[in-house]
Amino acid sequence: MKRQERADRIGDILDRIYPRPPIPLEHDDPFTLLIAVLLSAQTTDAQVNRVTPPLFAKASGPATMAALPEHEIHALIRTCGLAPGKARNIKRLSQLLLVEHGGKVPQDMAALEALPGVGHKTASVVMVQAFGVPAFPVDTHIHRLARRWQLSRAKNVEQTERDLKKLFPSSDWGKRHLQMIYFGREYCPARLHDTKACPICSWAAAKNHSGL
Fold first, then answer.
1. Structural domain boundaries, residue 193
2. Is residue 207 annotated as part of the catalytic site, yes or no?
């Protein structure tokens, strides 16, 4: 089966299982989404959703967040991985949004990536989920699935992103990103995976795949 044919069939399966995949991080606007995605690094979405309500109750916008002492931000997010660095970056990016962007989250990939603690994946999530701009956020989990399903042979997430963008229409990028996340959690774990029982791996995975 050719790679595009495999991608089309995978897309049909994902659409059937997850026709309207919800955004897993709770948020109210682009700023709260940006903060939630930043917090999600090295932390589960469930944990982020536990810490953001009290954080956003204290500060739900750049001005109020920039006014919070860094130690207070840290105290509110301390159960998230890498909390000290995240607290520092949250305060600094809030200050920069006020100074450089009029207190608004920019609808520009380069401007987002220039903010403290915001990498390409985080910026991609904000662009597609907050602003509806086509983007295909790829993390290590999606990278793993793309290799397992023989959609990409890339050794890094950047190349995997380019490969997936070629296989799926831009209108589906945001949806595919979420569908792959949910599918990986529910059907396709990294370890102890029964490929024969998997709706996709049972036919798409290489017979000699190494669990990637």
1. 3-21+136-204
2. no
